[in-house]
Write a structure and sequence with these properties.
By secondary structure, the protein is of the alpha/beta class. The chain is built from eight helices and ten strands. The strands form two sheets. The protein has a seven-stranded parallel beta sheet with strand order 1-10-9-6-2-3-5, with helices on both faces. Strands 4-8-7 form a three-stranded antiparallel beta sheet, covered by helices on one side. It catalyses: alpha-D-glucosamine 6-phosphate + H2O = beta-D-fructose 6-phosphate + NH4(+).
């Protein structure tokens, strides 16, 4: 994998936003896969800034969702649909018509999962999928020991994940849904370019295992090693456990352009 070490989260957001902007200049109707949480916010803020400045035209861009809570109304402020509309779609000046995601309120959730997989394929596939990583190496809601060939499906949240996410629900874990729809690892690997952003020392072990360890279901993000175009952008803290950190710095730092990204 291509590993880019940046000074801080803001720098990581800027470099990924520029990669997205470059993609949109080449392919104005590109399908961008987005993730939720606090880590990718610098990416969305930087990309929206480029749109406002006229550095890129995102008017034809399409946005797709990585995962969604099951049973949470689509208009609930903490549904991932609402979050993506608020953090990505609206700041880019897009409409809800440019957005696609799984139906977390469907009566037949399995059918909704299969329908979303088909929709991504029929849309021509994801051009760039942005990912975060959990401290246990999960991507999306593909927890350790998820099949590396898995498709979009329903998953049960671990208790720790529900505890972690309670902060978005006024600290009340009882409000956090027990299930989610998530793109499977096999689905994620079909994107043309995978970009994983990780910041903070708490992600250092997961990053090292994913980048330098064996490909193993116990570390779902290690599946990115199988992808022909995967980029991992990490700040110094998240890179602190990488044995090849100096090599990555020498290879990618201080370049005027990031050819691989």
């Amino acid at each position: 994998m291509e590993v880019v070490i940046v000074p801080d989260a803001k720098a990581g957001g800027e470099i990924i936003a520029e990669a997205m902007a470059a993609l949109l200049r080449r392919k104005p109707d590109a399908l961008l896969g987005v993730a939720t949480g606090s880590t990718p916010l610098p990416v969305y803020e930087a990309l929206a800034g480029k749109v406002r400045a006229g550095a890129v035209d995102a008017s034809r861009a399409r946005i797709c969702q990585l995962d969604e809570y099951v049973g949470l109304p689509a208009d609930h402020p903490e549904s991932y649909r609402s979050t993506v509309l608020r953090q990505v779609v609206e700041p880019l000046g897009l409409t809800a018509d440019s957005f696609m995601g799984p139906d977390g309120t469907a009566a037949d959730v399995q059918a909704a999962c299969e329908a979303y997989d088909r929709a991504l394929s029929e849309a021509g596939g994801v051009d760039l999928q942005l990912l975060g990583i959990g401290t246990d190496g999960h991507i999306g809601f593909n927890e350790p020991c998820s099949s590396l060939a898995s498709r979009t499906r329903i998953k049960t949240l671990t208790e720790q994940t529900r505890v972690d996410n309670a902060r978005f629900f006024d600290g009340d874990i009882d409000q956090v849904p027990h299930h989610v729809i998530t793109q499977g690892i096999g689905t994620i690997l079909e994107a043309r370019h995978l970009v994983l952003l990780a910041t903070g020392e708490g992600k250092a072990d997961a990053v090292a295992q994913s980048v330098e360890g064996p490909v193993a279901a116990v570390v779902p993000a290690s599946a990115l090693q199988l992808h022909p175009h995967a980029t991992v952008v990490v700040d110094e803290a998240a890179a602190s456990k990488l044995k090849l950190a100096d090599y990555f710095r020498h290879t990618y730092t201080n370049k005027p352009t990031w050819q691989g990204l």
